[in-house]
Amino acid sequence: MLIGTVVNVLAIIVGSSLGLFLNNRLPDRFIKTFFQVIGLFTIFLGISMALESTHMLHMVMALITGAMVGEALRIQEAIERMGETLRTKFKIGNERFTEGLVTSFLLYCIGSLTIVGALEAGLTGDHKLIYIKSLMDGVSSIALASGLGLGVMFSVIPLLIFQGGITLLASMFGDFIPQIIITEISAVGGILLVGMGISILDIKKINVMNMLPALVTIIILLWLFPEIGI
Q1: What is the mean pLDDT of the chain?
Q2: 115: pLDDT confidence band, cut at 50, 70 and 90?
Q3: CA dist., res. 220 & res. 225, Å (int)
Q4: CA spacing 20 to 30 A to 3: which of 115, 157, 163, 187?
Q5: What's the confidence (pLDDT) of residue 222?
Q6: How far is it, in rounded angstroms, from Cα 169 to Cα 105?
Q7: CB-based contacts of 191: which residues, under 8 Å, 6+ apart?
Q8: Which pLDDT score is estimated for 135?
Q9: CB within 8 A of 195, min separation 6: which ones?
Q10: Under 8 Å between Cβ of 1 and 171
């Protein structure tokens, strides 16, 4: 059942390994350009996902309430500490390790292809969408790892938990998940990607990880107020 996710993990490991190999052999100006491309693409991908929303009021409220919860729980700080702990434990010299881990997590895990692909794999056993995503993630991980370092490879850990978890849950409860939930989760994830892209481009530091609870609050709001659609 999880073969698609396993292939996805292997694709990222291979791609990020190639990216790390190139990182040591490219001048700084090329790495800087990689960052700019990654940032711009992340913003583009986020906007395209967010525009799929048909419940924008729900999305705004979910982002506000989710961000407040995330700030109260200090999620960003906890994840950064975890990243620094991993960096220290494995004696990783790259100072952008945590940024690479967080950025890759958002790109690989928060998207319609991830959710729909995992649901389809769990419901029908068809891994076609996950295989397509694996190819895309493998290619993008080359650029990501060349700019952000080893943190990109470590993102396979939350990917395995998140995507694999959705697949397992879908095999048990997938028939009860409406399409609107998938669409709006993806749309909220798109906003988070826009914020991450802005951070990558060094326009402004945005604590995107503190907004992650919005992915849960959007489900609650849609359940409580399904009739409101703007």
Answers
A1: 83
A2: confident
A3: 9
A4: 187
A5: 92
A6: 20
A7: 46, 50, 59, 63, 211, 214
A8: 86
A9: 46, 206, 208, 211
A10: yes
pLDDT beyond 60 at 230:
no
Of 42-51, 89-98, 99-108, give the lowest mean pLDDT range: 89-98
Residue 22 in contact with residue 146, Cβ under 8 Å? yes
For residue 66, the model assigns a pLDDT of 92
Is residue 197 over pLDDT 80? yes
**HEC per residue, the chain:** CCHHHHHHHHHHHHHHHHHHHHHCCCCHHHHHHHHHHHHHHHHHHHHHHHCCCCCHHHHHHHHHHHHHHHHHHCHHHHHHHHHHHHHHHCCCCCCCHHHHHHHHHHHHHCCHHHHHHHHHHHHHCCCHHHHHHHHHHHHHHHHHHHHHCCHHHHCHHHHHHHHHHHHHHHHHHHHHCCHHHHHHHHHHHHHHHHHHHHHHCCCCCCCHHHHCCHHHHHHHHHHHCCCCCC
pTM: 0.74
Amino acid at 169: L
